Amino acid sequence: MTSYLLRRIFGLLVVVLIVLTIAFIIVRLAPGDPAALMLGPEATPEDAVALRAQLGLDRPIFLQYLTFAANAARGDLGDSIFFNQPVLHVLAARAEPTIFLALFSLLIALVIATPIGIYAAYRRGSWLDQISISTAMLAASVPSFWTGLMFQRYFATELGWFHAAGYGGPDATFIERMSYLILPSIVLGIVNSALILRFTRTSMLDILGEDYIRTARSKGMSERRVILRHALKNAAIPIITVIGLTFALLVSGAVVTERVFNIPGMGNLVVSAVLRRDYPVIQGTLIVVATLYVVINLLTDLCYLLIDKRVRY
Amino acid sequence: MTISFSAGLGRITSALTVALMVTALALPARADTVNVAIIGEPDTFDPMMSTKDVVSIVTQHFVETLYTFDGSWSVVPLLAQSLPDISNNGKTYRIALRQGIVFHDGSAMNSADVVASLNRWLTVATRGKGVADKIDEVVATGSHSIEIRMNEAYSPLLSLLAFSNSAAAIYPEEILTGDTIDQVIGTGPYQLVDHVPDQYIQMARFDDYVSRSEPSNGAGGTRTQAPDEIRFLPVPDPNTRVEGLLSGQYHFADGLPTESYGRIDGASGADPVLLRPFGWPIFAINHKAGLLTDLNIRQALQAALPIDDMLFAAFGDENFFVVDAPLYPEGWAWRNNAGVEYYNQNDPTRAAGLLKTANYDDTPLRILTSRQYEFHFKMAEVAKVGLEAAGFAVHMDVVDWATLGQRRNDPALWDIYITHSPFLPEPALTSLYAPTSRLGWKEKEKDDILNNFTTQTDPAARRDLFAQLQQKVFEDVGFIKIGGFNALMGKSSDLDGVAPSPWPFFWNATLN
Amino acid sequence: MASAAPLIEPRFIDLLLSRRAVAVALVVLLIVLAVCLLANLLAPEDPMKMSVRQRLTAPGGDFWLGADAFGRDVLSRLLYAGRVSLGIGGGVALLSSLIGILIGLCAGFFRHLDGLFSRLIDAMMAFPDILLAIALVSILGGSIVNVMIALSIVYAPRIARIVRASTLVIRELPYVEAAHALGSNTFVIMYDHVLRNILSPIIVQSTFIFAYAMLAEAGLSFLGVGVDPATPTWGTMINEGRQYIDQAAFLILFPGLAISISVLSLQLIGDGLRDAMDPRLAKNL
Question: Which of C126, C139, C259 sits opposite A30 (nearest CB)?
């Protein structure tokens, strides 16, 4: 177990190093000059050259990489060109909305998906099964910005039930800020419930076909008990995996939704950063998000170990 | 596990319900706070360093200049006591400063601050650097008076000093030590309280502000400091700005798509604000290299462009654009009709003939544009169809605004790039006419006219010279004005006291 | 898993078509494909022809599905755009499979490469799809081919992972070892035994990638970092139509429907394929 853990952590470090390198390469290859962008439409080419030098963008790329890697190892992801602040600082300021948006939409997805998924498996082939499966698939087939735009238009602007956009002003309380996340969470929750629903259903179907379930049934145990006691317990493992995956995806994948609802999260930040050519921020976001993903993955696997003693390495 | 799981769900559901109720009860922002949705995050709070409109809009509330513009775009004093005393040869400007002006850090403004600020402006600001070689020195002649001494008369100087864009902002001398200013300190009616990037810029009334006493007129005159607080909220997506305005989240929203006019007009809580006219879309022409260095091909381009279709597709409704040749709109002193017959010819046959004269060899005409401004892209698409009909091969280079900003600096990469400008109070505020601009438009006669124009001080003579300059723009196809367009902004029905402007300001805004 | 089995068993097709939804999806997808491929015959207009004065004409009359902001025929554009959108989806499915198979086989077959390759796969998988795609397209530039390359890089690790896992298992099977011992060429073994056996999971996965890639293209266009906006794709059509949601909702309705129908069909087909290939699941249905 310990050696497994050590092996996994070493593997994780290697992955993070590769992530670091890929992120550096991707970002440096991009065209577009952050200096020209910062100076505005009437600035002269000479102004841009001067600013590039001031920002260190004119040094050889290899040197830039070495500096970058060494600093990253110390947890320093550089300074945002645009904000003139440490990247980690900028990212930390964007973490709250993104994490809570991911959390809420995951919860909404779970509330929708797990009961329906279990029931659909239990009544496989029934009209409810058919409908829930097709609806889930449909929800996953519509572009999420389309759903977002429609919901924003109808539920926020027309009906006034929710905030249309933003994340509250300077004196917004935590609850107020969270209230801005409700509508986007619903949109994301619906889109993501599809994956969880289908996965729950499939895992339950797998388990329900196992011998010990048949034994339990034959012993006269009530169907409700069979489902909740035996089946769900065993199906929990794959479901946890998919929840972990979904959460990791949500933390990073809310780009479009954050953009539609103007939520100042990490996804929105990275799109702005691409448009602003803020290299260190793009890099930093890619690295932090990818690292987060790897760590969540590891944690999910550890959950496996804890829950299922049958899984051995 | 099952039990705790569902109990957890129960808790979550009730938490969501509570949150839902909170939303339903959410109060509108405090009545004395004005929320303004702007098109993006300003990249700096130092208006000297940027020529972006969004920077001007925000920073004019906390930094001020010696002069500013009134409602009819005449220069009026702001931190200066009155208009300068200009020597007869036009080379010396004597400027008396107002007394008792206090910076946000509590220090009093004097001539040392002004001299240091103007010197920095001449060194770092794009527009300042443009005149630096004409200025010998800026000196303090008393505790509250300065003098600008020049080696040649330059009539646009006063407009440059008044402009909020690449602005000659006045800072305390103490903060001007390094290349950049960490904490911007000004004399404006509002001071910066808090700034969370991409979320809000919060500013509050500056209690020690000393307003001018003349009646408010444009940015000139009394600044009443009516709102307690002004918050600028960067909202990059135009549709989100519309939705936010309509749902009551913003009191004012800048840069709205013209398509939303009907919806805003019909909504009960919001009104459209139309800035008529706002500015002019421009096809900037590369005179340094490539296809358009040939006058015949430039004239073919001018002849082929289907101007009215381009404007119609770009702005959709005649409420929002005008097919208008002169470089200044109706009602401006600079307006004249020189050369207008070259505008909107829409004549593919003539263009084809000119191309033939030029021995055009099907080298593609490269149009560099971006979708940051949707109307740029739309004009380019329609232009492409018209140019192809005349026999041009056209290559559209659609990039993001950042890349465009970079590529246009390299003359090898483009023939035309698309941009726009508000109508500026002084023609020399734009670099388009200058041989040193990135367009590189050099032509002996035009350069002489331009030189006379900037040294001449008599207004009537300058108007006449500008007409000659306009004639040259058309004859030599220096650049192409596509037309005039209006800008749509929106405001809450409760908001008053905000005049339509390319750089709207809110110190006189009141909320009912 | 007999090595001599035909690539696709007949039973499999029966199984696939026995589910009505899957059969319908297959027919729908084929119709969509056919209509778009025949765009040059079926489209009533040149998709680029502008009649600016007739912009935003409602559906009916001269323009069956209306006219867009430039007065271009929406139906014609929808058909031509379909070629591009489906082409991007299909191209990504194909290209990412090729890259994925190559990486996966190498990782699975050559032990000394496995460490490096599987870490590379892990690292690539760790980047969120859309973020990686945004970053890649912003470097490569927004042409059709570049969007395809970017999305293929994004999705290839999914295939690679499947291929690697299957290869590891199959490599140890007695008959493969036997073939090795008999001196068969490694590449022949890879093709004969491994590739044929893992073809079905690859097909399933690439069907889903087809669907995701179409959604991703639309998302990239929405964020303004997708295909050159002058090229009609369903994504760019929605993005353009978005501005006219009031006057002409049909502008986003039709391409939105086209994407959703195609993606839905692909997902149904993918599901059907998966079920048909996994007898244990099929038994449950």
Answer: C139
